[in-house]
Design brief:
220 residues; mainly beta; two-stranded antiparallel ribbon; 3 helices
Length: 220
């Protein structure tokens, strides 16, 4: 007998499509929903499969962690997937995230420059590795501090796009994101979900080159 699945995705949101044209689709992915199918029949419900039921040519361009909410970009067809993926590789796509982290950040703004690599014996965890890790850079700006909860609201810019980069970089800084089941330690129970939201996405339109700018308010 197969054990019961622990994957409980949120119900579909009829208003989650924020923008659509002949080249791309922009979604507001809820927390708790996979970006792409996971392993096993119980993990096939995801952002990609839900939108493909309406737009069969939709193809994934980048991913958000299951626990992360916010802006997710998909391409319309293989040619646009190739073009949009190129924009990500060339760092022509600007992304911003909002998060609530434990404690009071000493700096108003700064950079976290720590090389990351998969912690293979403990996958899907990542780790800081100064020998074999890939260069990873995150810029941060402290927006507010809540003394009552001893937490800071921060705006994050991932210059690189490593797996779990924001989550691990903030944890390594000593200010883990609240609700993070992987890296927050004792702070994981301080929020009902990972308090990380992809709030801003800017990129050149794949056909016209016109700069497209979208935003999504954090639901926390």
């Amino acid at each position: 007998m197969n054990p019961a699945s622990d994957y409980c995705p949120p119900p579909p949101d009829p208003d989650w499509i924020l923008a659509v044209d002949s080249t791309f689709i922009l979604l507001n992915k809820p927390a708790g929903l996979l970006s792409v199918p996971g392993r096993g029949a119980d993990k096939q419900d995801c952002a990609a499969s839900r939108i493909q039921a309406q737009f069969p040519d939709a193809l994934i361009v980048h991913r958000l962690d299951m626990a992360t909410s916010g802006l997710l970009l998909l391409a319309r067809g293989p040619a646009m997937q190739s073009r949009l993926s190129q924009l990500f590789r060339e760092r022509q796509v600007d992304k911003r995230y909002r998060a609530v982290v434990a404690g009071h950040l000493a700096q108003d703004e700064g950079e976290i420059d720590l090389p990351l690599i998969t912690d293979w014996p403990n996958r899907p965890l990542q780790k800081v590795d100064f020998v074999a890790g890939k260069p990873s850079l995150t810029r941060f700006h402290r927006e507010a501090y809540n003394a009552a909860s001893d937490s800071s609201r921060v705006l994050l810019e991932p210059v690189t796009g490593r797996s779990h980069q924001l989550r691990l970089h903030l944890a390594a800084l000593g200010h883990p994101i609240l609700g993070d089941e992987l890296y927050a330690g004792i702070h994981r129970s301080r929020a009902p979900r990972l308090l990380l939201h992809a709030c801003s996405l800017s990129f050149p339109h794949p056909l016209t080159g016109h700069r497209c700018q979208y935003s999504s308010a954090a639901p926390f």
